[in-house]
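Give me structure tokens for this 117-residue protein.
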Amino acid sequence: QVQLVESGGGLVQAGGSLRLSCAASGTIFSWTAMAWYRQAPGKQRELVASISRGGNINYADVVKGRFTISRDNSKSTVYLQMNSLKPEDTAVYYCNARPFGSTVENWGRGTQVTVSS
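Here you go.
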């Protein structure tokens, strides 16, 4: 069973930075596609960034140039560096994992990011 634990959320002023981490267990991490999603109050969950097991990266248009996703296979951890944060980035951020050959979506419990204006 895949377990994901997010950390690094918090309260930051607009223009500030945060780095989220997601530690994974129960999977061969290097064979697992990872992603960050977010969900703001009253809105649907949306993809923020993804990184495949081969290192291919995709970003939502609204975060391109500000957010960077990366992974450290030796630590079974995926990161989301968030710079130039805006109030509209306020949301609960969720880590997602999809092991190779599996159609099961695995989710962490989420970490709150609040950006004040």
